[in-house]
Amino acid sequence: MVDTNLTVIDHPLIQHKLAILRDKNTNVRDFRALCTEISMLMAFEAMRNLPLEEVMVETPLALAKARRLAGKKLALVAILRAGLIMVDGILNLVPTARVGHIGLYRDPKTLKPVQYYSKLPADIAERDVFVLDPMLATGGSAAAAIRLLKEQGAKSIRLLCIIGAPEGKAVVHREHPEVEILLAAQDERLNEHGYIMPGLGDAGDRIYGTR
């Protein structure tokens, strides 16, 4: 059965960079750069279907028909802390996007998300929202973040993650069946500690050098 709300962006450049990202010997500087680059490449594909409108622009030589983004404006919502690394790359593509932050941590015993911070654009209900988190593991944090966004009025929500596990995808789709999930790779499973296998380790620790 085809999952119409799951897209794995299997572009060769993304897969090449992902192979280096997974390597345990990749240093912090390169890991950060790769996360940013992969996020930018994923966003390029994820925004393929954004609506356009025709406009007239004056070139140095003549009037020309052109097309620009139409409809809702964009919001990037990073799930702290690891989601921050995905914001800058996407802002390079869409510098006018507003940025929100949701702070969640996973209780080490229950593996359930606990919220400690939230700051969103005031007009979040009027924007196309991309929720950003490098890893979709248990799915608890992503589902909680999407639930919070809906409570604040957001209606158009997509989840953009670099690596996901089937268990996390199932949780998000069970709680939010209309939300599209976009991944660079869907891995095999979670281990007994809730980490994605084979994964790449703890993304936050590898991004910030705290492993």
Overall structural domain count: 1
Q: How many β strands by DSSP? A: 12
CATH class reads Alpha Beta
- Taking the alpha carbons of the first and last residues, their distance comes to 39 Å
How much is the average pLDDT? 91
- % residues in beta strands: 25-35%
State the CATH architecture.
3-Layer(aba) Sandwich
Structural class: alpha/beta
Question: What general outline do the C-alpha atoms trace?
Answer: globular
The biggest sheet, with number of strands, parallel, antiparallel or mixed sense and barrel status, is: 8 strands, mixed
Which keywords apply here?
211 residues, alpha/beta, Rossmann fold, eight-stranded mixed β-sheet, two-stranded antiparallel sheet, 6 helices, 33% strand, globular
How does this model look, in words?
By secondary structure, the protein is of the alpha/beta class. It has one domain: Rossmann fold. It contains 6 helices and 12 strands. Strands 1, 4, 5, 6, 7, 8, 9 and 10 form an 8-stranded mixed β-sheet that branches. A two-stranded antiparallel sheet has the order 2-3. A two-stranded antiparallel sheet has the order 11-12. Strand 11 and strand 12 form a beta hairpin. Helix 1 packs antiparallel against helix 2 and helix 2 crosses helix 3. The chain is globular, with a radius of gyration of 18 Å. The N and C termini lie far apart (39 Å). The mean pLDDT is 91.
Helices and strands in order:
Layout: E1 6-8, H1 12-22, H2 28-46, E2 52-58, E3 63-69, E4 73-80, H3 84-93, E5 98-106, E6 113-119, E7 127-132, E8 135-136, H4 140-151, E9 156-164, H5 166-175, E10 180-186, E11 189-190, E12 196-197, H6 203-208
Parallel strand pairs: 1-10, 4-5, 4-7, 7-9, 8-9, 9-10
Antiparallel strand pairs: 2-3, 5-6, 11-12
Helix pairs in contact: 1-2, 2-3
